[in-house]
Specification:
The complex is a heterotrimer. Chain A is an alpha/beta fold. In chain A, the strands form 2 sheets. Chain A has a 5-stranded parallel sheet with strand order 3-2-4-5-6. The longest helix of chain A is centred in the first third of the chain and has 19 residues. Chain B folds into 2 domains: about 140 residues, Aspartate/ornithine carbamoyltransferase (Rossmann fold); about 150 residues, Aspartate/ornithine carbamoyltransferase (Rossmann fold). Helices cover about 35% and strands about 15% of the residues of chain B. A 5-stranded parallel sheet of chain B has the order 7-6-5-8-9, with helices on one face. A 4-stranded parallel sheet of chain B has the order 2-1-3-4. In chain B, helix 1 packs across helix 5 and helix 2 packs across helix 11. The longest helix of chain B is centred in the last third of the chain and has 20 residues. Chain C is α/β, with parallel strands linked by helices. Chain C contains 12 helices and 19 strands. In chain C, strands 1, 2, 3, 4, 5, 16, 17, 18 and 19 form a 9-stranded mixed sheet that branches. Chain C starts with 5 loop residues before the first strand and ends with a strand. The chains are: A alpha/beta, B alpha/beta, C alpha/beta.
Chain lengths: ~180, ~300, ~425
């Protein structure tokens, strides 16, 4: 049983709003860099950068961070988790890093991402933007920017589909 | 992948690609200011080296440390092994101490296989007798793919004492798996005809082979006395099979020269040749760390079921 | 004390000495076969219902290493002969490479006395060909023959010197009794350092090879010297197709030669060493599938006379080492019959009469063990084995042998010894060693 909780235009509007909020919170784009968490988060980060360019006419740097090696569950599944690309072609030190992810759930991914990020440099501050917050946190982590709060069952699956990878934009909840 | 790395023959083309791709990610980690990731925090890797090989041991040690594993170097000189402890008892002792993986270098072919029958942890073959040296082969494959962009269809000559070379075995198996064309070159006493079963070709005339190569891979000449009965002298070997400047000129322009090290300059390779830009020995060493990180990650990062 | 009487009722009697293969009752009394026939009256004897089982002359092994004296940590005469009884044997030839070497009458007598005191089957001590098995000076063969030795061997080592072998084969003709010179046919120079059969697999596994040619050249040499001297030659554990072919031609030519093959050479190939299993490390080594087929053919057509175990026990810690450090050899007494039944008889490769002939009747004749190997006839010593041909079992410890180094470890075999009688006394009863 699955339900589409956001369609393409919902996602577009949510990202536009988040872009505005990021600019507002940080007093403009100058100190901001966007780091998407692979995979899906990096695509959302690129779109946020696009919105910011449309609004401010400024290119904010975008990187992609693979947090696999920082996960706390390595060795718990049959195969070692697959690694993805990390490409952060700028220095994160003294910048405001906005981590971008598709779904915020337990908070463990964000914890890993913050560890990974601080191994790469010393950001002035780290903020968190997510398209969907589905609740069920297991760590004391809260997002700075949220596209939509989607209450879900503990065992439900929330999938963010993006055009570039999945052929269309949507957020789908599959109840267990 | 299996839970151990014993032989290149256990790896499919898919496995090799996965290892090389994973190594690619670790190359990126190696370019960071902090070259360390927490992936294998709390795991213990034991380097059990029955033969001295500082290069391979350090490479494994760095790989494990960059993955945040604890590393123990179990030296066999001056230890319980020197007092006559058997391989099995040593292995059981290491297991009792909580070794999650044992990296073994041993003069006896098959010693890593034997180890797997006694311990539960992962076993990585870091060179066994005249059998195999799979991590060397994988770092060579990585270097080849990096330099030449592909493995399929590459024309590779492996030159030297194939009969006694664990590097030649592992590399031949790996290259054939990946679709390269391998020719083993050396005097007939050092190239067993049975090697044809590996899917390689055999030639005894290096000069005839050189113009057709993408890669000339030189094996280290073993100078122990018992090996010398196979050729009249090292001098004659160098004359017929040493890669001199004159011979390098016969290689196609794009062809590269490889050597697993340590080199005998002036024997299998002229000093000038070793220092040419087309000689990629330094890249081999650098890539060795990333490839060994990939292997430790893929083996130890998999679920802990008993094999 | 007279042996009890037994009526073995209803078994399929397989008696190569008489070419007999039919269901019959066998009455045993006073240690000998009293009567063979249909519907025999128990007449006070204990009845053993063995309907559906095979009843054959007790097996005879030409080649067992019982290790005593000198290496009792591997095996003793007591444990080795019990392993033999468990496998259906009533007689074994005990190889001479003990410590001290069985190169003089005193050692032969000591082995025989130990066997009489502690053994569970008849033991025929093999004498060394050369003093200390050093391959140089002939042992005092006359003294050995007077002590009852009929088989001489430096087994474990090839008689490297053609001149020494010539003298041994020539000298052995001096005796009224037929004296057999048995050689371990592998050229020591060609197999130096070798760990397994030289071929595709040794090259891939990085193990030094023992080429089949090492056997071929020695077999050719030995046969030429046998022809030259008229001596009686026996070739231990043949392993290669070309050696078999040489023996076939030599027999056609009338050269006095016999040959044996082991159950493991009839079963395994060099490919089976892929995991460096030290229990499969044997000398001569396991060879190719073609060699194995040639060995099977030769056993069927009689080119190879006998199946011999080359039972070679080693302590656990001696085999649980690196492959090149492990001593060669596998135990075999407890499995030989079942292996032949499973690998050769069941698939129809060899008929049962010939199988029993190769395991009992022929080796008894080669060894001069006249009380063994049948015929199963009135007045003959009751050395018998009863086998359940359908019983299926997995080879695994505990073994009756002191050792565990079984090549067949983990294999499922069909055919299990139910009773073994040595001169009418059970050494195995209902599958249990009782001697």
């Amino acid at each position: 049983m699955s339900a589409e909780v956001m369609d393409a235009s919902d996602i577009r509007r949510a990202l536009t709003r988040i872009a505005h909020e990021i600019l507002e919170r940080n007093g403009g784009p100058e100190e901001v860099v966007l780091v998407g968490i692979a995979q899906r988060g990096d695509e959302l980060a690129r779109r946020l950068a696009e919105r910011i360019r449309e609004i401010e006419g400024v290119e904010v740097p975008v990187g992609v961070l693979d947090i696999t090696l920082y996960r706390d569950d390595i060795g718990m599944s049959a195969e070692a988790p697959e690694l993805h690309e990390t490409r952060i072609p700028f220095d994160v030190s003294e910048r405001t890093v906005v981590l971008v992810d598709d779904v915020l759930f337990t908070g463990r991914t964000v914890r890993a991402a913050m560890d990974a990020l601080t191994d790469l440099g010393r950001p002035r501050r780290i903020q968190l933007a997510v398209l969907v917050d589905r609740g069920h946190r297991e760590l004391p982590i809260r997002p700075d920017f949220v596209g939509k709060n989607v209450p879900t069952g503990r065992r439900a699956q929330v999938r963010v589909l993006v055009e570039e990878v999945d052929g269309r934009d949507a957020v789908v909840v599959q109840e267990a | 992948m299996n839970r151990h790395l014993l032989s290149m023959r256990d790896l499919s083309a898919e496995d090799v690609v996965r290892i090389l791709d994973t190594a690619e990610s670790f190359r990126e980690v190696g370019t960071r200011v902090i070259k360390k990731v927490p992936a294998l925090r709390g795991r213990t890797v034991v380097n059990l080296f029955y033969e001295n090989s500082t290069r391979t041991r350090i490479s494994f040690e760095l790989a494990a440390k960059r993955l945040s594993a604890d590393v123990i170097n179990f030296s066999t000189t001056g230890s319980s092994v020197a007092k006559g402890e058997s391989l099995k008892d040593t292995a059981l002792t290491l297991q009792a101490m909580g070794a999650d993986a044992i990296v073994i270098r041993h003069a006896s072919s098959g010693a890593p296989h034997r180890l797997t029958t006694w311990v539960r942890g992962h076993v990585l073959n870091a060179g066994d007798g005249t059998h195999e040296h799979p991590t060397q082969a994988l770092l060579d494959l990585y270097t080849l793919r990096e330099r030449l962009g592909r493995l399929e269809g590459l024309r590779v000559a492996i030159v030297g004492d194939v009969l006694h070379s664990r590097v030649a075995r592992s590399l031949s198996f790996g290259l054939v798996t990946m679709g390269s064309e391998v020719t083993l070159v050396g005097p007939p006493t050092l190239i067993p005809p049975e090697a044809l079963a590996w899917g390689v070709q055999i030639d005894h005339d290096l000069d005839a082979v050189l113009p057709k190569l993408d890669v000339c891979y030189l094996l280290r000449v073993q100078t122990e006395r018992q090996r010398l009965e196979y050729v009249p002298s090292i001098r004659e070997y160098a004359r017929r099979y040493g890669l001199t400047s004159a011979r390098v000129a016969m290689l196609p322009d794009e062809a590269i020269v490889m050597h697993p090290g340590p080199m005998n300059r002036g024997v299998e390779i002229d000093s000038d040749v070793a220092d040419l830009p087309r000689s990629v020995m330094e890249a081999q060493v650098t890539n060795g760390i990333a490839v060994r990180m990939a292997l430790l990650y893929l083996l130890l990062g998999a679920g802990g079921e008993e094999g | 004390m007279s042996a009890p009487a037994w009526l073995l009722r209803g078994a399929r009697v397989v008696d190569p000495a008489q070419g007999r293969d039919e269901p019959l009752d066998v009455l045993v009394r006073g240690g000998v076969v009293a009567e063979v026939g249909v519907g025999l009256d128990a007449a006070g004897a204990t009845v053993l219902d063995v309907a559906g089982a095979l009843l054959a002359p007790g097996l005879v092994d030409l080649h067992a290493h019982l290790r005593e004296p000198g290496e009792e940590h591997k095996e003793t005469i007591a444990t080795g002969t019990r392993a033999a009884a468990a496998g259906g044997y009533t007689a074994v030839a005990a190889m001479a490479n003990t410590s001290p070497v069985s190169d003089r009458a005193a050692v032969v007598r000591a082995v025989r006395e130990l066997a009489e005191a502690t053994g569970a089957c008849d033991v025929f001590p093999v004498g060394a060909i050369t003093k200390g098995q050093q391959g140089e000076t002939l042992a005092e063969i006359g003294e050995l023959v007077e002590a009852g030795v009929r088989l001489l061997s430096d087994d474990g080592r090839c008689v490297a010197s053609a001149r020494v072998l010539r003298n041994a084969l020539t000298y052995a003709r001096a005796f009224a009794e037929p004296v057999v010179i048995a050689d371990h046919a592998e050229d020591p120079d060609l197999v130096e350092g070798g760990q397994m059969h030289e071929g595709v697999h040794s090259v891939a596994l990085g193990l030094a090879g023992r080429p089949a040619e090492a056997e071929e050249v020695i077999v050719a040499r030995d046969l030429a010297i046998a022809r030259m001297t008229g001596g009686r030659l026996h070739l231990c554990h043949l392993s290669s197709a070309r050696a078999v072919e040489l023996v076939r031609r030599a027999k056609q030519e009338g050269i006095r030669v016999s040959a044996e093959v082991t159950p493991h050479h009839l079963t395994f190939t060099d490919e089976d060493l892929r995991d460096y299993d030290t229990n499969l490390k044997v000398n001569p080594p396991l060879r190719t599938a073609e060699d194995r087929e040639a060995l099977r053919d030769a056993l069927v057509d009689g080119t190879i006379d006998a199946v011999a175990t080359d039972h070679a026990p080693h302590a656990v810690e001696e085999k649980e080492v690196e492959f090149d450090r492990a001593p060669p050899g596998t135990i075999g007494l407890e499995t030989a019959l079942a292996v032949v039944l499973t690998e050769l008889v069941a698939p129809g490769r060899i008929d049962l009469l010939r199988a029993i002939d190769a395991l009992s009747t022929t080796p008894a004749r080669i060894l001069g063990a006249s009380e063994h190997g049948g015929p199963i006839a009135p007045g003959r010593p009751a050395n018998l084995v009863v086998v359940d041909p359908e019983a299926s079992w997995v080879v695994e410890p505990p073994f009756v042998s002191k050792a565990r180094n079984a090549a067949f470890l983990g294999r499922r075999l069909r055919g299990r010894v139910v009773h073994t009688l040595l001169r009418g006394r059970p050494t195995v009863l209902d599958g249990k060693v009782v001697a």
